[in-house]
């Protein structure tokens, strides 16, 4: 009889004769009744099943449980429970960063890792200065959270919640910008409506020749 031992939320679980094809998501939900991670697309595209493995965010629907014996696995339950919310969970509540709440566990797990990445100055795909990445920019946060889909479109409030915690943990209190004035570009635009990427240089070049063009950043066309 083979036994697999998994450490989840600092507690050891033993599973006997587990099918080697069982995903970590299914082990959590169906074998251990750890239901925080959600099964959405089951193809690694929506991020609802995001958990932390050794501090790194992982789509648990795409990784096999047998691969993670000896790893430190953290689900939303290990980040904080209703009576002991983490700072990020409280920020999500304060900014109403969820509607149906189905994607929220994955969003918070992903954002928890994001904050650590920013603290370590990891660049992202949209980082302009690789030596000094500014993780507080809205386009940085949006890019780093792009693997987590919210079908209710609570993105502006999700960004505000993450920004608040980043400001508290990364910036000095004297230099913290207010949440309502988070920049989307170097010019200091505010977050309004559903965030969309800033226009490219090509788009800006075309708009300069079109007097009818208008800026719909954050709005609806």
Describe the structure.
- Helix content is 30%, strand content 10%.
- It has seven helices and five strands, in the order ββαβββαααααα.
- The chain has helices at residues 24-31, 76-79, 87-94, 104-119, 138-144, 155-170, 201-208, and strands at 3-8, 11-16, 50-53, 56-59, 72-74.
- It is globular, with a radius of gyration of 20 Å.
- Residues 174-197 and 207-221 have low confidence and may be disordered.
Provide a concise account of the structure shown.
The chain has 221 residues and is an alpha+beta fold. Helices cover 30% and strands 10% of the residues. Strands 2-1-5-3-4 form a five-stranded mixed beta sheet.
Straight-line distance between termini: 61 Å
Structural class: alpha+beta
Mean pLDDT: 84
Number of helices: 7
Give the low-pLDDT segments: 174-197, 207-221
User: How many strands, which pairing sense, and closed or not: the largest β-sheet?
Assistant: 5 strands, mixed
* DSSP strand count: 5
Large-scale geometry: globular
Radius of gyration (Å): 20 Å
Order of helices and strands: EEHEEEHHHHHH
Output the strand order for the largest sheet.
2-1-5-3-4
Percent helix: 25-40%
Q: What percentage of amino acids are in beta strands? A: 5-15%
Protein topology:
Elements: E1 3-8, E2 11-16, H1 24-31, E3 50-53, E4 56-59, E5 72-74, H2 76-79, H3 87-94, H4 104-119, H5 138-144, H6 155-170, H7 201-208
Parallel strand pairs: 1-5
Antiparallel strand pairs: 1-2, 3-4, 3-5
Helix pairs in contact: 3-6, 4-6
């Amino acid at each position: 009889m083979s036994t697999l031992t998994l450490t989840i939320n600092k507690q050891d679980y033993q599973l006997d004769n587990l099918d080697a094809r069982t995903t970590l998501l299914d082990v959590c939900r169906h074998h251990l009744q750890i239901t925080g991670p959600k099964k959405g697309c089951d193809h690694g595209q929506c991020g609802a099943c995001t958990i932390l493995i050794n501090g790194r965010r992982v789509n648990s629907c795409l990784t096999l449980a047998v691969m993670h014996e000896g790893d430190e696995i953290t689900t939303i339950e290990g980040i904080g429970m209703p009576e002991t919310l983490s700072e990020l969970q409280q920020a999500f509540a304060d900014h109403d960063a969820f509607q149906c709440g189905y994607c929220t566990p994955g969003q918070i797990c992903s954002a928890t890792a994001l904050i650590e990445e920013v603290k370590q100055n990891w660049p992202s795909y949209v980082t302009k200065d690789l030596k000094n990445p500014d993780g507080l920019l809205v386009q940085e946060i949006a890019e780093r959270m792009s693997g987590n889909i919210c079908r209710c479109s609570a993105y502006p409030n999700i960004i505000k919640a993450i920004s608040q915690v980043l400001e508290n943990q990364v910036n000095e209190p004297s230099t913290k910008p207010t949440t309502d004035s988070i920049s989307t570009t170097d010019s200091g635009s505010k977050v309004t409506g559903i965030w969309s990427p800033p226009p490219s240089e090509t788009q800006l070049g075309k708009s300069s020749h079109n007097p009818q063009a208008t800026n719909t950043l954050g709005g609806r066309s």
